[in-house]
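User: I'm putting together notes for a lab meeting next week and I want to include a structural view of one of the chains we've been expressing. I don't have a solved structure, so I'd like a prediction I can at least talk through. The sequence is below, exactly as it appears in our construct file.
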Amino acid sequence: MVKSTSVQVFLVITVISFLGLLVLHQSLNFGAFSKASKFIRKSVLAEQSSEEVPDGISEFRQSTDDPIDFQEKTEEALPSNRPRLPKALIIGFSKCGTTALRTFLTLHPDIVSPIEEVRYFNFNYTKGLEWYRRQMPPSTENQITIEKTPSYIMSPIVLQRIYLYDSQVKLIIIIRDPIIRLQSQYAHTYRNAPAGAHKPDFKIWVRGDSSDNRITHFVGYTKYIRQVYDQFPKDQILVLAEEDFEQNPLSVMKEVELFLNLKPAFSKDMFYYNKGKGFYCFNRENEFFPTVLKMVKVNNRTGCLGEDKGRDHPDIDDDFLKELVQFIRPHNEQLFRLIGKRIVWENFE
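Assistant: Thanks for the context. Below is the predicted structure for the 349-residue chain, given as structure tokens.
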């Protein structure tokens, strides 16, 4: 009886041992099979990826144990002629010739510029830098992109955003006789008014109301330029006079050329004086004229800017002119002290 029981116990132990060995064997085989499956799957995917990725990019799929410079590889993969972020901005002022300035600057072979005001730093900031970049025309690494939005100068928040974007960006500001600027703004405001439609008298429009005094707004160059000086070094800021640009565009173009550290390229045969318009236009015979047509809006027949430039200004009676001069002159003196140069304006001689 005892012997029979011993045999039964032995058989049970033997069966259990056998089952244990069987389970262990299956586990080992499954692990090996799993590893093999993963290896085969990786090999297939790698082969597929190698077939789908264009030449010159497959090196991105190296082992992470072998560090690579992703920025360098990305630069190599990008085309040489592509949109680039601006290195210079025309930030002010409205009705001071910013469009003409930007347009003439595109005659330089090393300058590109979008036709429209992008208004990224004030109205489109939430769209991000990549959106901003896509608004720029293609350029090579040897060219500089210039963007013009004259309202940038009006906001200290916008100036802070520009500084965060690029603390070394070059800034161009153009100013003009404040009284002529007022006249220009009035003409612009009522440019689309139907013939015979009622328009307020210039004097009434200028004075505005207690919350909207246009004299204060349009003569306050000092306040806004000081904000720029507070944010950026003065050697990154160029202040131009519209009158200088209007009378001698070549001299102003060369000044900008030097400020941007560009090779000399502007010449007097790029412009001609249009007596009918009363200002300088593009010389259509110049070799650079066809290339700038993609970046400017000009009359192909005359080479001049659009009809919206050079509008007739409203007349000012003598008494009101004297009143304006008396009020504005102290503002001009503050401005000249700030920028370190005196500008001769016809209304203040």
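A couple of points you could mention at the meeting. DSSP finds 14 helices and nine strands in the chain. The mean pLDDT is 80.

User: Perfect, that's what I needed.
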